[in-house]
Amino acid sequence: MAVKEVKFYGHVRQYNEMKADIDANIKKVLESGEYVHGPMNKQFEKEFAEFSGTKYSIPCGNGTDALWLVLMALGVGEGDEVITNANTFFATAEAIWIAGATAVLVDCDPKTKCIDPAKIEAAITRKTRCIMPVHLYGQCCDMPAIKKIADKYKLWVIEDNAQAIDAAGDTFKIGELSDAVATSFIIQKNLGCFGDGGAIVTNNEQINRVTKLLRAHGSPARNVHSFGFNSRLDDIQAGVLSVKLKHIHEGNNRRIEWAKRYTAGLQGIQTCELPYVKPGYRHIFHLYVIDVKNASKRDAMLKWLNDNGVDAKTHYSIAIHQQAGFPWGKGARIVGDLTNADYNAASCISLPMFPELTAEEVDFVIAKVKEMDKVFAK
Ligand SMILES: *Cc1c(COP(=O)(O)O)cnc(C)c1O
């Protein structure tokens, strides 16, 4: 059947591919009677640490919690500053504010869209405690450069890995050059469950011990409590994730193949720039984002795609410092000009990207983007 439209997500297709195993795990949890922090949660905790190549994994309620749980476990809060980039999902900065610290926003690299390490040093003050690099769209930040700065100024590094699970750099893996890694399992992410979920992975014993206390009412034993919260991953979600974890690498390989097909098919278009992959990096294309060269035409081009059967979106058309609710002052401040982040917000268009796409659908999107290119090149 000829393709008439292509959706942005393939959640149900993915479920159908793994249905037998997912249903079996859900049934197992339901029949066990242990629904919160039970055996399935323990099993996934172990599997996720193994997968991540870290000593510890700490499943929790969502990706935002994973970030601030680490900040709190390290004592980063009131009066402290955390450096991150302005062009990320809102939750990165939100987690810093929740911990009580100030988000210090710097510009991104124009090609990778990840934090520009050259901009970090100028943002460091006596209050700086931590750098929070975001592996945006599925490509790793320049972690060796970030680690070097962190070592020089004795700063913590927490990787926001909500978008790049199973990605890697040329000479490094995620988690190797930082103190902790936080990820999200909401369904839009590459490893997604059927509700909210998140996790921290780390080799740091203190982060493991304290975040495990903080996520469960500060309770080391029945009836014993200290300062804490409630941020648990339930066992049904753990059961879903345990199945999906077995397929994540292969699913990401499929994303990489679709990205190659997009990039080959879209060579020579006039109006947009195609995504950049750093040599030797494993970019796992959480998102395939093209940049409209004349940003003033972006909204019209996006609408044209949507009107012509391509469910394209933007990530993120309003950068953090452009949000009306941006808490200037104590909550956040910016350092230097944010030219690249501004351009990213104004120019980005994300094309449909998920492992369960078909070649016909990818080719349909390519054909439509080329048509759009002709319409708007004039
Ligand atoms: C999704 C996302 C988060 C937050 O994850 P939730 O599970 O929605 O709390 C944080 N940072 C980035 C970069 C994200 O994409």
Description:
With 378 residues, this protein is of the alpha/beta class. It has two domains: 11-245, Type I PLP-dependent aspartate aminotransferase-like (Major domain) (Aspartate Aminotransferase, domain 2, 3-Layer(aba) Sandwich); 249-376, Aspartate Aminotransferase, domain 1. Helix content is 39%, strand content 13%. It has helices at residues 11-32, 39-52, 63-73, 90-98, 117-120, 143-153, 205-214, 235-245, 248-265, 298-307, 339-347, 359-377, and strands spanning 56-60, 81-85, 102-106, 128-131, 156-160, 180-184, 198-202, 272-273, 288-292, 332-334, 348-351. An eight-stranded mixed sheet has the order 1-7-6-5-4-2-3-10, sandwiched between helices. The mean pLDDT is 97. Bound molecules: pyridoxal-5'-phosphate. Residues 62-64, 88-89, 91-92, 134, 160, 162-163, 184, 186, 196, 198 line the site of pyridoxal-5'-phosphate (PLP).
